[in-house]
Write a sequence for this structure.
């Protein structure tokens, strides 16, 4: 049932056009045969996709970004699951403060986080190292996972866990056989959201990379601010297609709105 | 039994303590140090950096521009995001999942990519100017790159999904029966919107505004690409102090002022909402 009037329908179309415009333009430009950014492209050419293969620094940056996002999302998930169980399943003194600390990376301006990490890591000579990057990314993305896992934990029916306990199951068995399967959709959704957030992160990362650990967003950012050739458009298009595939997968598995609606509770 | 929650959250708490709270405290201390071009950072304790920022019209202009951009972005996001959330709420499920993908999906695409798209659209020889000139509507290109207006437009695109999500979540919590009741009692659709729908969507609008404002005030990639060195905001100024001028203490002081002013706006906003609605935003 669609209860939108003609005006609403027109608004909806304009809004969707606004949301799609910059993405469509980037995809279009990437097919240009020319050496400059033109839209609509005067022809269809894969010239700038071939150019990616001649630029190993972009490929290396993409590889680093993938590894970093995988490592950071996994570390953050392993830390967030027990923390969410603690916050979600028990009442104790300091619980609210604990939750506030874990969600605080969302409240602090990212540029402040960036310089704080830079200051800390450079004192210990860890600036630009993969381990340093992973730890910093894990902190930034923990709130995203925590919220989704917390939502799953809070909605949990405890009777099965209690039944298992009364039948003599240990805590680890209860977790592995009962709790984890029940919260798994939240955990997977959180991991994916964290992976994407880490993969796209720029503002913090730009402060703490060195030339050998430059991530894809940082590489693209410095390319855009220095030159204007369509190479960055073809690289962007590849990441858009990657995001699109991931998005559709997530939408099927978990529901895109469910994954992101937690954002509304951010403040 | 009471130590179990702390045991479970211990690993995460350790990481956050060592790598978040300590670095933030160190940055705070850094902002009181001084900087010498030859000797680097000198561990003094003075308000000199803060005095330099607060006594210089150049920095006031940057802070003023940053908050003006953030306020304009928030207002436009509310103006277009609220109707869109309402439309989304009323769409049939099949259409809704498509529109959700279009409206919210861009959140999962890198801000760098989306800003690149706006740079291509807004340039003097960009898509919009070329089209307007081809149609004979304007004679000379209308300057949109390197202007605050261009940055606001792109930031609205980056952050409006958060507003739509927040309002949509609020609408889903509302009671559809109130709307039907008002309608059966003869209220016009405008009255229903003003007296029934808007008040119930208000918590979503207020929390959405808070999210958009705080993120727009500290946005980096979009102002850096679309504003360049000509239209500087606080985040790009901090970046320049840290990575170009290398005056870390001054950069830290600017960043601390940004943190304090954003926090102040958020607390004031929350206080306002509390007084109005009896409860704060979660």
């Amino acid at each position: 049932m669609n209860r939108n009037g003609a005006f609403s329908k027109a608004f909806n179309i304009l809004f969707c056009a606004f949301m799609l415009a910059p993405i469509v333009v980037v995809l279009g430009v990437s097919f240009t045969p020319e050496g400059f950014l033109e839209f609509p492209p005067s022809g269809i050419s894969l010239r700038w996709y071939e150019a990616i293969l001649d630029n190993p620094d972009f490929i290396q940056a993409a590889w680093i970004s993938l590894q970093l996002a995988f490592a950071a999302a996994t570390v953050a998930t392993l830390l967030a699951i027990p923390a969410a169980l603690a916050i979600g399943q028990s009442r104790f003194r300091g619980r609210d403060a604990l939750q506030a600390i874990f969600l605080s990376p969302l409240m602090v301006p990212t540029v402040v986080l960036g310089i704080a990490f830079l200051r800390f890591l450079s004192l210990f000579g860890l600036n630009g190292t993969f381990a340093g990057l992973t730890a910093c990314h894990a902190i930034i993305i923990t709130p995203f996972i925590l919220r989704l896992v917390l939502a799953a934990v809070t909605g949990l029916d405890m009777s099965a866990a209690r039944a298992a306990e009364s039948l003599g199951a240990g805590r680890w068995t209860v977790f592995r056989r009962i709790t984890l399967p029940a919260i798994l959709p939240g955990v997977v959704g959180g991991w994916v959201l964290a992976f994407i957030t880490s993969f796209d992160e720029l503002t913090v990362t730009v402060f703490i990379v060195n030339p050998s650990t430059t991530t894809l967003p940082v590489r693209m950012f410095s390319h855009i601010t220095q030159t204007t050739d369509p190479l960055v458009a073809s690289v962007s298009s590849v990441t858009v297609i990657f995001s699109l595939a991931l998005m559709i997968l997530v939408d099927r598995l978990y529901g895109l709105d469910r994954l992101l609606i937690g954002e509304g509770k951010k403040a | 039994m009471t130590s179990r929650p702390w045991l479970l959250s211990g690993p995460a708490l350790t990481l956050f303590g060592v790598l978040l709270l300590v670095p933030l405290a160190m940055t705070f201390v850094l902002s009181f140090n001084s900087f010498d071009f030859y000797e680097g950072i000198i561990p003094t304790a003075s308000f000199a950096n803060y005095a330099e920022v607060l006594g210089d019209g150049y920095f006031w202009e940057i802070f003023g521009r940053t908050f003006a951009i953030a306020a304009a972005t928030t207002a436009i996001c509310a103006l277009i995001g609220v109707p869109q959330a309402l439309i989304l709420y009323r769409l049939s499920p099949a259409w809704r999942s498509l529109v959700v993908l279009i409206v919210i999906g861009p959140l999962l695409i890198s801000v760098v990519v989306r800003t690149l798209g706006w740079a291509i659209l807004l340039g003097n020889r960009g898509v919009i100017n070329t089209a307007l000139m081809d149609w004979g509507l304007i004679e000379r290109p209308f300057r949109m790159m390197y202007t605050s207006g261009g940055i606001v437009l792109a930031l609205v695109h980056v952050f409006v999904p958060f507003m739509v999500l927040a309002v949509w979540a609020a609408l889903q919590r509302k009671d559809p029966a109130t709307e039907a009741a008002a309608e059966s009692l003869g209220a016009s659709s405008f009255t229903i919107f003003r007296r029934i729908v808007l008040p119930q969507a208000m918590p979503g609008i207020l929390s959405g505004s808070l999210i958009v404002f705080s993120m727009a005030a500290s946005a980096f990639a979009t102002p850096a690409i679309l504003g360049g060195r000509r239209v500087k905001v606080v985040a790009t100024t901090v970046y320049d102090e840290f990575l170009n001028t290398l005056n870390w203490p001054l950069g830290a002081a600017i960043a601390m002022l940004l943190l304090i002013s954003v926090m102040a706006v958020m607390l004031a906003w929350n206080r306002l909402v509390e007084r109005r609605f009896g409860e704060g935003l979660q």
Summary: Chain A touches chain B through 88 residues (CB under 8 Å). Residues 263-267 of chain A have pLDDT under 50 and may be disordered. Chain A has one domain: 55-265.
